[in-house]
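Exam review. A common question shows you a sequence with its structure tokens and asks you to describe the fold in words. Practice with the pair below. Do the first one on your own.
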Amino acid sequence: MAEIKLQEITKQFGPVEVIIHADFTIKDKEFAVILGPSGCGKSTLLRMIAGLEDISSGKIIINNRRVDTLPPKDRGCAMVFQNYALYPHMTVKGNIGYSLRIAGVPKAKREKRISETAELLGLSDLMDRKPGRLSGGQRQRVAIGRALVREPDVFLFDEPLSNLDAKLRTKMRLELRRLHDRISATTLYVTHDQVEAMTLADRIVIINRGRIEQIGTPKEIYKQPATQFVAGFIGTPQTNFFRGTIDKTVNRFTDSGGEVFDLPKEITRPLNHRDVVLGIRPEDVEMGGNTVTARVDLVEELGSHRILHCSCGSTAISVLDESEEEKQPGEPVPLGFPSGKLLFFDPETGSSIQPEKTGLV
């Protein structure tokens, strides 16, 4: 059972805390993704699990065994890096089988495992090539094969696709997910790319400035963001946010720029006279609604749909428009905010506010 438990993990570089009380469990055979912006501490967290960085405090437990005091080779982890780090003078076969040769695995057994791994990754026809004659995707598969051949308890991926072009990244994402489904190994994958996270993960761990913001399935994180940061980080274009006050007597929200949004009574009543941050995703804004009238400033034409960048006075609103009717800059557009799609956050803490659970109804 390759379960990973992090118990109150912290990491400090001098007085600076880069990981702050990380406490979560990755289930056996789960594909979990650590997602966050550059510099948030996600790679540091992965390297601590692998044993490449020391922890400042806490415990790391893999397979019911505490491993944070063990050297990397004894933790049962195999890591695939952003830089493929292949030996340029070795063939594909030599790179895949290097760790087995160093470990003294008998030749017959070694050859069998190399062959099985190469076939699984579609590398059988490339075994005699050296890395310089491989494409980026092929090199990445060799790096994965080098980890896979060891039959580890846990796979750790540190932004392995970031050096590939967009089309190849999409293809490799599919290959990684299919590979995981075939071998059912516990996998922890680090990325700053929300599309990778949403398409690969069984669960996502979102980290920001060293703190865990939310852990959940892709659907949970998209539909029920725990914080304003999560709501803003997940989704393209970014969620629209408006800071202001709700007044139930007129069923309105007035933002800090003075713009007024008419909201449904069931929303305004529990949050009466409360300062909030209101959020709504561009894809949830309804064209032709009666919440507010905006003016089109810019149109991004994307083929299957377009993004309208609009404004109400000083208030900016982005809208995903899939209609056949083209919009022009300067054109007024009535917009609706469906009550079931609205998000509310505390302006001071950033935490989610759920009107039905405030006890103020």
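Now try the second one, then compare your answer with the model answer below.
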Amino acid sequence: MRILLVEDDAEVARFVRRGLQEAGHTVEHAANGRDGLFLAASEQFDMLVLDRMLPGGVDGVRLVETLRAQGNRTPVLFLSALSAVDERVKGLKAGGDDYLVKPFAFAELVARVEALARRPTVDAPATRLKIADLEMDLLSRTVTRGGKRIEIQPREFRLLEHLMRHAGQVVTRTMLLEKVWDYHFDPQTNVIDVHVSRLRQKVDRGFDKPLIHTVRNAGYMIRAEP
């Protein structure tokens, strides 16, 4: 396999690189997050092994989040001295596939690398979302319902995309604040209600069956069924 190792500790990097090469892998090394992100985004690798805490203005979590947002599905194994459960969860939620706490036995590192390599290849991410006669093209950034083009603003597009990706599920206001507005606090405004109202006017007005529903005291849901 061709592996990208992103590790700022020179001694750890030499140790891991040498061991992976002895195990038969080709290893490229980046010493900071910025260079690691550039290599991961511009070249083809079979796996990424990266530290959580990285210099260069891009830490491991941000690096993986950026790659996943770009559609890069390369398996990622985090190496980190941060052993707390919430830190491991943070790395996995960012898009990491496995998490190994330092210090570690090299035999375990190789075993985890090989285990990730055996996982089935992930299908390419969907480029179209569809609920009943409502369709969203993620590449052209267009929305249609019943074959008719719906003109929506960028924020409305993100809102609708999040609802469609969670079709049939209640999406809370807190979730929308974090995923659509990038707020990690409650701004104490009715911005969500206003945008949902506008989106509902564009998506449901003129159609017999509404798709966007308010779930009292919970949030919102998009579904085809009444």
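Model answer, second protein: Residues 2-118 form a domain with the Rossmann fold fold (CATH 3.40.50.2300). DSSP finds eight helices and twelve strands in the chain. Full marks require stating both points clearly.
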